[in-house]
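User: Predict the structure for this protein chain, please.
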Amino acid sequence: MIETFDDRERASQAAADAIDSALRRRLDAQQAASLVVSGGTTPGRCFEILSRSGLDWNNVTVTLSDERVVPESHADSNARLVRETLLTHEAAAASFLPLVDPLAPDVGAVAELEQSLRTLPFPFACALLGMGEDGHFASLFPDAANLPDGLATDGSALALPIATAASPHPRVSLTLAALSRSDVIILLVFGDDKREVLRRAETDEQVADQLPVRQLLRQKRAPVRVLWAP
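Assistant: Here is the predicted structure, written as structure tokens:
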């Protein structure tokens, strides 16, 4: 079921509130928590709100759902976005695990990334994701040759290198097997075109295989809250 908001400000506030609550529950349960966030323009306002939350950020580790394999100084770096918009104010006290080496990015370093990811507190308290008009989430694009591995909820891999015609940069993405190891997944989506993609993913069997987000919505390991605004 899609939760509909009148505007993006209200949807962003709802997403921030949901993440705050999820982190507090996990911190209460095990005194440490991890949060997965996406890049792009959609989560920006949510990050700004969340950065001022009075959480015990010292015991929170933030990581990314996906990343372009570029230096962190690059304008397309998701890590740069997160550092500049989320890891500020109170949230500056959080730890951060980037998916690529900020100075020497290498798509071949996924094995080392896997080891680092396995040191995080599991399950993730929350995964905040977005969605593209092609139905991709994280960097699990429809044309990725290894998409079946990325969407296998019973797979052992937590991250994969991704090549897609939709991006000029190679990418690294968490798998659905990793993302579904979350107490809750928040899918924050804006715009009428993406609302139609969600409708197709939920109801149109003929195009289902072309829309990776369908697998996210249908998996049973983690509850998914879909927050949408025009």
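The two ends are 16 Å apart (CA to CA).
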